[in-house]
Amino acid sequence: xxxxxxxxxxxxxxxxxxxxxxxxxxxxxxxxxxxxxxxxxxxxxxxxxxxxxxxxxxxxxxxxxxxxxxxxxxxxxxxxxxxxxxxxxxxxxxxxxxxxxxxxxxxxxxxxxxxxxxxxxxxxxxxxxxxxxxxxxxxxxxxxxxxxxxxxxxxxxxxxxxxxxxxxxxxxxxxxxxxxxxxxxxxxxxxxxxxxxxxxxxxxxxxxxxxxxxxxxxxxxxxxxxxxxxxxxxxxxxxxxxxxxxxxxxxxxxxxxxxxxxxxxxxxxxxxxxxxxxxxxxxxxxxxxxxxxxxxxxxxxxxxxxxxxxxxxxxxxxxxxxxxxxxxxxxxxxxxxxxxxxxxxxxxxxxxxx
Length: 354
Known about the structure:
By secondary structure, the chain is of the alpha/beta class. Helices cover 26% and strands 17% of the residues. Strands 5-4-3-2-12-1-13 form a 7-stranded mixed β-sheet, covered by helices on one side. A 6-stranded mixed β-sheet has the order 6-7-8-9-11-10.
């Protein structure tokens, strides 16, 4: 295994002395410039060849990306300054509340290989290691995933928030799987916050722990699930997603399980070639009304796919509410969750959801 020092060049071993602040990620450096350059800073956060935000549709990816980056800039700096308090607040909420929930589903998938045993999958998304997510939620999420004894572990992106101090903790959790991996493997995709952190750093960390990162790639599962493919597309906001190229790597009659960080991927007409799609990003709104209605969802689809299991274009779509938090160390009526799935082929009773 690679020396963690080569993965985390800015990380210092823990000591009993005062902790140093983590290195602020590149996106946050915009605010360090003088105020007179603020307009150019926002333009820098948007591709140079794009029109100003006022000329864009309110739900266009460019507008959502610029708005999210601007909000991220402000709140992440505040979160770093109040890190101990922010972590404590979210830990208290997890400890005093119902903790991390398990969204458990048993589903029949089209083209599931005949004669293959059921496939158990654990799906974790939006861990957001950092000052607003504390320690309790992520520890509980990983524990629940291990206890499920899955055949495959899937990770839906957004591993950090605000700075890189959470990387060593993420590494330690993944190392537990490296020495006792699930039989079908561990696969991951990138989210928008992974581009803020630097995607190469994230990819290096994951691959050092035996995780296969899928950036517009598809990977076949080993026997006894031959014929099932795990596909992953690049982040829709900051990457270069290529769904067509990704699906073309699979066989025509494949049972494809697709990971995409944002649920907006479901707008593609190619989704009919996918048996199951797993997404994150929305946090279920993170702050909702008592009836569970999100106040705001950073998605072009709005509240349509904010969290849970859906049928879209005749196929299954699951949107995780995630584990950690961003901007504010709190969740209101949007509890964190992980997904535990048992996929199977044709059965007399068909699919049922628990």
